[in-house]
Write a structure and sequence with these properties.
single chain; mainly alpha; four-stranded antiparallel sheet; three-stranded antiparallel sheet; 15 helices; 7 strands; about 5% strand; globular
Length: about 350
């Protein structure tokens, strides 16, 4: 798993998940992440020769203890990228180079990492399992009905069965998995009829929520979302970028309405957006301009404080999205079925 962020790259694409990326191995090897980041900096000659690299400041920069930093620096020294000197730490030099130490503050800007939110993934095991499971189940439900074995999943993630059960219960709240008493967890299949049901619920609830939320939405935030939608035109977006676009319009725009029960229901009917994300992730094509045009129209009427027209555009967008999503589901149905983890068995 990629666990350092660059435009939120730590959120694994479906392709990474289906290729069996080992979450726990990567999660525990923080020293390797730190080593790789520093190696990239050194290879690009992004820092001055003789720069002093100290464990403490680097540990603070990466948000870790000194142990993984110490190991990363030792590896870089063994590989010949940095050298020991008379003072504490290492310097950016070869062992045979006579260079005066340069003692300046180690900052993100200095290392060319100013735009990274978090260099090392410090989430709990439960959070990582939840994210990985969500990606796997979201994909599996499109390709059929699958049974999830808790014990096998615990072994796969090298964690407790309780962590797996808690993650599955949270994903049940999102409508991704279900379980009857004394039975196994099941996901899928996602059918055209079920998609229609999801869209019917959203098309009735979202416009009503938008009317109520409209006057409470921040104008600057709306402008930024409109700008983001326009900039996304003609681009091939990452899964997280597409997810952000969808959640901005269909979740964050509606939350100010203040109806918690309604938002809970809407979060349980996310399957249409799952199909869209997986469709674009697997095919690697630019996002449909019609979808983005419809997003922009809703934002424009919200900025004009015309709640009724904004709600009407939202309803029209959902009706058109239903047609597009059903077409995408048909395309996905003829693609080869991905290889899923061993804890999932097709029913």
């Amino acid at each position: 798993m990629i666990i350092w962020r660059a435009g939120w790259e730590r959120k694994k694409t479906m392709r990474n998940i289906m290729n069996g990326a080992d979450m726990d191995d990567a999660g525990s090897a923080r020293y390797e992440i730190i080593r790789q980041v520093l190696l990239n900096v050194l290879q690009q000659n992004a820092v001055p020769k003789g720069l002093v690299l100290l464990e403490g400041p680097l540990a603070q920069l990466f948000g870790t203890s000194r142990v993984p930093v110490r190991r990363a620096l030792s590896m870089l020294h063994e590989e010949g990228w940095i050298a020991r000197f008379e003072g504490r730490g290492f310097i950016v030099a070869r062992d045979d180079e006579d260079i005066e130490p340069v003692r300046i503050a180690l900052t993100r800007e200095l290392l060319g990492l100013a735009h990274h939110e978090e260099l090392v993934d410090t989430r709990s095991t439960g959070e990582k399992v939840l994210e990985h499971l969500q990606g796997v189940l979201s994909t599996a439900m499109i390709f059929g009905c699958y049974q999830v074995d808790e014990q096998d999943a615990a072994h796969y993630y090298t964690t407790s069965r309780g962590v797996i059960r808690e993650s599955l219960m949270r994903l049940r709240d999102k409508g991704l998995v279900e379980k009857e008493p004394y039975s196994q967890w099941l996901t899928g299949p996602l059918t055209a009829r079920e998609l229609g049901d999801h869209f019917e619920i959203r098309a009735n609830l979202e416009p009503a929520a938008l009317r109520k939320a409209g006057e409470r939405l921040d104008v600057d935030w709306l402008k930024s979302r409109l700008d983001n939608a326009k900039k996304s035109q003609g681009k091939q977006l990452t899964a997280i970028e597409l997810e952000t676009l969808e959640e901005d319009l269909h979740i964050r725009c509606l939350e100010p309405a203040g109806n918690k029960l309604m938002m809970q229901i809407l979060r349980q009917h996310q399957s249409p957006f799952i199909v869209t994300r997986i469709f674009y992730d697997l095919l690697r094509i630019p996002v449909d301009s019609a979808m983005l045009d419809e997003h922009c129209l809703v934002y424009e009427f919200l900025l004009k404080r015309n709640w009724e027209l904004a709600a009407a555009c939202m309803k029209d967008h959902l009706e058109r999205a239903q047609v597009r999503t059903l077409q995408r589901l048909k395309v996905l149905s003829v693609l080869p079925v991905p290889a899923f983890p061993d804890f999932m068995a097709r029913r």
